[in-house]
Amino acid sequence: MALHARKPERRVLLRAGLTFTALGAALGAGAGSAQAVSLPPAAEVPEQGVSALQAIGETAGPAVTSALGTSLASSVAPITNLQLDPLANTGVDPLDNAVGTQIADFKPVTTAIVTDPITSGGALSDLPVVGSVTKLVTG
Questions:
Q1: Is 119 exposed, middle or buried (0-12, 13-18, 19+ CB in 10 A)?
Q2: Phi, psi angles (nearest 5°) of residue 100
Q3: What are phi and psi of 83, to 5 degrees?
Q4: How crowded is residue 14: how many other Cβ atoms within 10 Å of its Cβ?
Q5: Residue 101 in contact with residue 112, Cβ under 8 Å?
Q6: pLDDT in tens, the chain (139 residues)
Q7: Beta bridge partners of 102
Q8: Are the beta carbons of 72 and 137 closer than 8 angstroms?
Q9: CA distance 89 to 105
Q10: CA-CA distances (angstroms) from residue 29 to 23, 26, 35, 60?
């Protein structure tokens, strides 16, 4: 079968699989900062009505939640600092196109305010609304 006759679905599935693999690797790299949990000794008799499994769950629950939060923040932080427009600050940037107008003596209106954070080489964390949301996730 010739290369041009290959089905495009196969290529899309391959790209999706590689994307998920890279995301999993990034999340796994962030999990290295997990903290050790001190579990209750097995010889201790738990309080009346509380099983040993519940006691371990109460002890390990906050640590697991903290480790997952740290892992998420550590894996998302580098992504928020990447430059969004690879052609920013070059002469061939197709996004560097502001439109403006002025009527009579009124203040001029332009779209440069909206496009400037991206065309000047800004990252996701530099954007006005999205940047504050990413700071909530990354801490």
A1: buried
A2: -140, 160
A3: -70, 130
A4: 10
A5: no
A6: 566 666 666 677 777 777 877 777 766 665 555 455 555 555 455 556 567 667 677 777 777 777 777 777 777 778 888 888 888 888 888 888 888 999 999 999 998 888 888 888 888 888 878 888 887 777 6
A7: none
A8: yes
A9: 32
A10: 10, 5, 14, 21
Amino acid at 88: A
Distances from the Cα of 99 to the Cα of 93, 106, 127, angstroms: 15, 16, 20
Q: Are 124 and 70 in contact (CB under 8 A)?
A: no
Give this prediction's pTM.
0.41
Instruction: Take residue 34 and report the two structure tokens written for it.
Output: 């997990």
Of 118, 109, 33, the closest CA to residue 75 belongs to: 33
Total length of the chain = 139
Query: Two tokens at 40?
Result: 């209750």
Rounded CA-CA distance 139/135 in Å is: 6
